[in-house]
UniProtKB/TrEMBL annotation:
Keyword terms of this UniProt record: Membrane
GO biological process, alphabetically ordered: mitochondrion organization
Compartments (UniProt record): Membrane
Protein name: Peptidase
One Pfam family in the UniProt entry: Band_7
Domain Band: residue ranges: 26-190
InterPro entries noted in UniProt: Band_7, Band_7/SPFH_dom_sf, Prohibitin
Membrane topology: Single-pass membrane protein
Entry GO terms, CC: membrane
Length: 272
């Protein structure tokens, strides 16, 4: 029987076509922008955690599996009820923005899988918020130490997620809500504290003004004592003579009575 190369090529082509039809979806993979993947080789080395597939076209063996991850920044909103230091319920709304660490996708897949948001991210966020809230009173969380509480939640959540191959971009506390009765009591207390501070400020201002006036009065009194001590009879007589001489030399009409004034000083009589 003569071998027919043409028929062989046709058979080979048919086999290749059948293989492509059956396994093409598993062999040819296209990763879109914002996607990365790791390969799982069930019959050889298992999960390859070190080699990360980037965006573009890839060919893999049909018996291997490519696990695709969205590595773009993602956002989740969470509303939760937590307990403060005294066991009072506080409602907190938070928003967390994150993405898987690009080079650690294999480790993330090994420990948490593609459902890592529900398995890892949300539980860690909730746990951090609860732990931090439990260290403060409702008043501190709501007002007096709110900035400190928020920063502590951000720091501890970021640390926990980073240890599990998640890069946290931001954590925003949208609102902190208390029961209406407790909220009203806290706001009333804060108002009274502000009024007390305002009164204390006015009191200190008045005390400062009184002290300023006392110092001013003491200065004037000291000045007068110094002047009185320096004005002897001789000096007063000398000053009177000098004044009389000066007035006598002026062009105005006047009458000067010598020796008739108090202490023997001249008396000056004139129209002006």
């Amino acid at each position: 029987m003569k071998f027919n190369f043409k028929s062989s090529y046709l058979v080979l082509g048919a086999v290749v076509l059948i293989v492509l039809l059956l396994f093409g979806g598993r062999m040819f993979k296209i990763l879109k922008p914002g996607e990365k993947a790791v390969i799982f080789k069930p019959y050889t080395t298992g999960l390859d955690k070190d080699n990360i597939f980037g965006e573009g076209f890839h060919i893999i063996a049909p018996w291997n599996e490519l696990e695709v991850y969205n590595v773009r920044e993602q956002q989740r909103d969470e509303t939760m009820d937590v307990l403060d230091k005294n066991g009072l319920s506080v409602n907190v709304d938070v928003t967390v923005r994150f993405n898987p660490s690009y080079s650690k996708i294999g480790f993330l897949h090994e420990q948490f899988g593609v459902n890592f948001i529900n398995v890892l991210v949300i539980p860690e966020v909730r746990s951090s918020v609860r732990q931090v809230a439990g260290r403060y009173t409702a008043e501190e969380i709501y007002s007096t130490k709110r900035a400190e509480v928020e920063q502590t939640i951000i720091t501890e959540t970021k640390k926990a997620l980073s240890a599990n191959f998640i890069d946290m971009r931001a954590l925003l506390i949208r609102s902190i809500n208390l029961p209406a009765q407790i909220k009203g009591a806290i706001e009333n207390k804060l108002q009274q504290e502000q009024e007390a501070l305002a009164y204390e400020f006015r009191l200190k201002r008045e005390e400062s003004e009184a002290e300023r006036r006392r110092i001013e009065a003491e200065g004037i009194a000291n000045y007068n004592r110094i002047i009185d001590a320096s004005l002897t009879d001789a000096i007063l007589t000398q000053r009177g003579i000098e004044a009389t001489t000066s007035l006598a030399e002026s062009p105005n009409s006047k009458v000067i009575v010598i020796g008739s004034g108090k202490d023997g000083l001249p008396i000056i009589l004139g129209n002006n």
